[in-house]
Amino acid sequence: MPQLITMITANLTAYHEHQTHQPGDANLIVKQLVRDYRDHLADLQVIVVGGDGTLHDVVNGLQEMGQGQVPIGYIPTGTGNDFARANHIPLTYQKAAASLATAEPRGVNVGRVSAKEFDTKYFINNFGIGIDALVVYATNHSRSKNLMNKLKLGSLSYPLHFATALMHQKAFTASWGQWALDHHDDRSYLCVFTNHPFLGGVRLIMPEDDDRSALHLVIVHKEKWQVIGQALVALLKKKPDVPQIHHYQGPEFHFETEAGEHIQVDGEELQAPLHVTLTQVTQRFLLPTD
After folding, report:
1. Radius of gyration of the chain (CA)
2. Which segments of the chain belong to CATH 3.40.50.10330?
3. What is the spatial distance between Cα 56 and Cα 268, in angstroms, rounded to a whole number?
4. What is the pLDDT of residue 241?
5. Which CATH number applies to 114-282?
6. DSSP track, 125-179
7. Domain with CATH 2.60.200.40 in the chain
8. Residues 6+ apart with CB under 8 A from 229
9. Which residues form a coiled coil (predicted)?
């Protein structure tokens, strides 16, 4: 860590280091930074060293304060690192830290979900209902999670729990649409809203031009689990001509489910029923120039 701090601060005139100890700490820290810098916010940059969960907390803190213009640099040290993959940030901390020297602030679309059931939340990666959220739940509550992280095998947690979730996930009823709830399915298996193509470290079906100016919704329809397995493999191989898979994109979505499904927002666990509106907002990030 001292070597990393030296690399990060080499081109800075002043800096303050803050440690987090549990989920939510980064949210509180960045809010206090905004208060401390309220008279000179143009001087504030936030460098996050951690996983996508820590980055999620920082983005939520800035957006809740109405300060999405504060640029965030990111050095990924998590397991999935979906945000880094999507934004071409190096996945090794040495290269990511070095890239900050020439990084430029750019606006990136992040998701916003407003619900009757909880306060507005923002997501850098995705908002999922169904099997991916069940995998997140199983991974987070696994007795072997800490051991695998100590052995630096944390990246295997998601695929290890996926097979079990594949057989246990039940079909659920969902309604969705861009301007009204004009789509309905009583055999939904996966509904995921995403800002970019990556989920659990792998790339999903997305348009060839990788349109980042819109939210994307991928829905997988429930069939026999063998067929579902084939559909999910097709999803990962970017072969959209499978009848169980539906893909939509747009600036806004409405979504409802009365089922008691697992839900995840950037890996944060929630529970249905759910009545939400999803849009995007802009957050500035310090991103590599090459």
Report:
1. 19
2. 2-108
3. 9
4. 58
5. 2.60.200.40
6. SEEEEEHHHHHHHHHHT-TTHHHHHHTT-GGGHHHHHHHHHHHHPPPEEEEEESS
7. 114-282
8. 166
9. none
Choose among 263, 275, 281: nearest CA to 112: 281
Query: In the numeric block, which tokens belong to residue 285?
Result: 């990030």
Q: What is the pLDDT of residue 216?
A: 92
Please state, in angstroms and rounded to a whole number, the distance separating the CA atoms of residues 200 and 110: 17
What is the four-CA torsion angle of 202, 208, 210, 213, rounded to 10 degrees?
A: -140
**DSSP assignments along 35-60, one per residue:** HHTTT-GGG--EEEEE-HHHHHHHHH
Q: What is the chain's percent helix, strand, coil content, to nearest 5?
A: 30, 30, 35
197: preceding bond cis by omega (within 30 degrees): no
Distance, CA of 201 to CA of 249 (rounded, Å): 21
Q: What is the CATH number of domain 2-108?
A: 3.40.50.10330
- How far apart CA 224 and CA 120 sit, in angstroms, is 36
- Mean pLDDT per segment of 10 residues, for the chain of length 290 residues? 77 84 96 96 94 96 98 91 93 92 95 91 95 82 53 54 73 92 90 88 62 85 62 56 77 90 90 89 93
Please give the pLDDT value at position 147. 47
What is the model's pLDDT at position 123? Answer: 98
Q: From CA 244, how far away is CA 189, in angstroms rounded?
A: 10
Three-state DSSP at 265 gives strand
Q: What is the pLDDT of residue 233?
A: 61
CA neighbor of 172 nearest in space, from 127, 222, 137, 128: 222
